[in-house]
Amino acid sequence: MKWTEDLVAIFLGVFILVFSLIVFVVLPDSASSINAYLDIITAKLGKWQSNPLEAIQDKLGGLLGMFVLLSVLLGAGAYLVKISFLPFLKGFVIVFLVGLVSYLLASQLDFKSVGLGYALWAIALGIFISNVFGLPAWLRPALQHEFFIKTGLVLLGAEVLFGKILAIGLPGIFVAWVVTPIVLVATFWFGQKVLKIKSKSLNMTISADMSVCGVSAAIATGAACKAKKEELTTAIGLSMVFTSVMMVALPALIKAVGMPEILGGAWLGGTIDATGAVVAAGAFLGDKAMNVAATIKMIQNILIGVIAFAVAVYWTTRVEKGESQKVSTMEIWNRFPKFILGFIGASIFFSILQQALDPELSARLIEKELFGFTKSIRGWLFCLAFVSIGLSTNFKELRAQFHGGKPLILYVCGQLLNLGLTLLMAWLMFYKVFPEITSAI
Would you list the domain boundaries of the chain? Predict the structure, then answer.
């Protein structure tokens, strides 16, 4: 069997989930010593104001454990796709250290209060290092951003639980599944017909990033349309900047105009890109808004696979098809980013498992303990991916992507359309069509 990057990402994601399932759900008592160790390595960094050492106080052992765990898992995965283990490990030390610095900066209280998260720091630090000091050849084997983030997306799939989706029901589905495709198609059309962006893959990646759910959608869609690394960096950079602004500005605006909490939460969930930023922004408004925002974002996350498949079909049948060329089903399958199957499979399995367990047991074992572990791993995988993107980005090449300001204009115009349609749909669904569901939340 030939190991592809997508197949290895699915294998590693499933391995982590199965291991977590055994430790936290099947054998929670007999594996208590393992649980204690996992709690140590997944502990979050502390907050700090002026001394960054406060953030890692008593956590050095855990950080070392996380490094060893990720080195072994990712090094084994790299080996399966024909990347030698030792060269990978040598570069991975630097990638991990830059990721750690990114987490440290993100935990600083002032930076944290304005929404400067680890993703933005990871990309910025990577770009700074590569463009100021250069990129040595020995570091390149460890810069496997797609491999890292694909594995993380398989873990993300397990967190998209249908039970939580049903709690919000039809209003949330309309907000996430009707508005998102409209905004995606309209933004892509605007980029091609009005702005006349030459690169269709850049146009599509930015459109998906902005309309679906940020970085995750950009990676999946970029794989489907074969976007260049620089184009992916551009989309992710725009997403990070606007996410940081919107997670602070939107809750302030909602409070200033006296918008109802449920409506505000739905608006945040459908428009802010990153799931973590959605939760943080919703928390500014209250628990109800936070739960509605997070649930709508999870509903929207399901579209990652659907959008990636649709883009793969469109790209093979319309964008790259010659006048007399026929596109086979196999070509569409070859283009489809197969790690999405791991995302969907994990979502289905854990949704069924959650419904089968007692609600209290499910909340404790699945959502608190198991997902507490996998979310930490996923966060590190995403952080390492962003560091890799930054380190492998040439600023001159990145600057060329912003020539004429068209990507920025595309993102701003698309996001304005997203904000308007999402607010309108949320108001209609939660307060006019299904007011009884809203009153029961």
Answer: 5-440
